[in-house]
């Protein structure tokens, strides 16, 4: 197919405009798609979703078991959605003996509809390499110092398997409501680079 050619030196903006024009000419609506995606990112794919999941797991042991055995089904119970290609959601339970942390060594995958879009540092080569090679040192540099006897498990996200870390419930929170508990849960806690 012949398209009007852009000079090799065309700016990113010129290239984007050319692609949008080509899609428009074929009856697609790229501007609508972009607006729709932006709305999802800003309004719907938020770490507050995962925080609700964690708070419910802390409060309801039967739900916690269901979350640990089938994350996708547990997410659906709360009326939350995951894309079809996120075929599995695996919840990784932190304990005093085991600390879980997630990464994507290939790129930047997360369960983004549940824990939010990945932060910039998560996509950087330094995090992706060092969290595997020297996880204890890297976590310490990020402000999370773990006891030497705590085992660290690093989980590498794939296209169809996504993870969420189920942090330990902070000790001073007995009797708290689910919304109160959810307010404690951060995106970094669900990635496994922060304690709550
Ligand atoms: Fe990725």
What does this structure look like?
With 196 residues, the protein is of the alpha/beta class. It has two domains: 12-43, no CATH class; 47-191, Nitrile hydratase alpha /Thiocyanate hydrolase gamma (Nitrile Hydratase, Chain A). It has eleven helices and four strands, in the order H-H-H-H-H-E-E-H-H-H-H-E-E-H-H. It has helices at 12-25, 30-44, 47-59, 61-69, 71-77, 112-115, 120-123, 125-133, 135-141, 178-182, 187-191, and strands at 88-93, 98-103, 151-156, 161-166. The strands form two sheets. The chain has a two-stranded parallel ribbon with strand order 1-4. The longest helix is centred in the N-terminal third of the chain and has 15 residues, at 30-44. The radius of gyration is 20 Å and the shape is globular. The model has no long low-confidence stretch (mean pLDDT 94). The structure holds fe (iii) ion. Fe (iii) ion (FE) binds at residues 104, 106-109, 157.
Quick overview:
This protein is globular.
């Amino acid at each position: 197919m012949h398209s009007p050619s852009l000079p090799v030196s065309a700016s990113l903006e010129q290239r984007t405009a050319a692609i949008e024009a080509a899609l428009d000419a074929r009856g697609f609506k790229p501007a609508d798609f972009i607006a729709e995606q932006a709305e999802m990112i800003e309004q719907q794919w938020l770490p507050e979703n995962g925080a609700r999941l964690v708070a419910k797991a802390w409060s309801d042991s039967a739900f916690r078991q269901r979350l640990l055995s089938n994350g996708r089904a547990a997410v659906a119970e709360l009326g939350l959605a995951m894309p079809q290609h996120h075929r599995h959601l695996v919840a990784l339970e932190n304990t005093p003996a085991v600390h879980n942390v997630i990464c994507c060594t290939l790129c930047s995958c997360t369960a983004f509809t549940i824990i939010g879009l990945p932060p910039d540092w998560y996509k950087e080569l330094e995090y992706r390499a060092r969290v595997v090679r020297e996880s204890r040192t890297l976590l310490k540099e990020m402000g999370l110092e773990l006891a030497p006897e705590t085992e660290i498990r690093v989980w590498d996200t794939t296209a169809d398997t996504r993870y969420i870390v189920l942090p330990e419930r902070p000790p001073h929170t007995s009797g708290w409501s689910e919304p109160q508990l959810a307010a404690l849960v951060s995106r970094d806690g669900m990635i496994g680079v922060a304690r709550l």
